[in-house]
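User: Can you help me understand a structure? I only have the sequence.
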Amino acid sequence: MDKFDVIIVGGGFSGLLCAKELSAKNLSVKVIEEHNEIGYPNKCSGVISSKTMQLLNFPLSKNIVENRFSKIVFYSPGSIKLSLDFKENEIFVLNRYNLDNYLAEEAIKNGAEISILSKATSFLQNDNEVKIKVNDNQILASNYLVDARVLLESLI
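Assistant: Let's start by predicting it. Here is the structure, written out as tokens:
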């Protein structure tokens, strides 16, 4: 049985960001992703502020940042218009596929392991560890479990 400090179930944005950050702290990290490709299917629009870009230390490369804007205009069904102006292109539209793959590459560089086509089917927690059954035939153990799957899914 393989043992890790942290097992992350879900290889989307949240799971991969978590893997990148935890593996950078020299924790042994395993990401379990049920799909056959990181970044697919896309489940989020990828719109974030420049402050968030800075806090998360994301690169401003063209393959990640698709567009920038500084104003949002909302139109209600009753013809009410609301405009929000931001300073100097404060909002970024990100290419989520490329961002997710960037996060996966950084996590792997830090020592994390990522398994695709792997589905967590059950877990058991005791005082010392969490055991996770993957694809109904493999058991992994960890000190901590992060459930980073989409909201509609659950281990329980």
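Now, to help you interpret it: The first helix runs from residue 13 to 24. The mean pLDDT is 89. Let me know which part you'd like to focus on.
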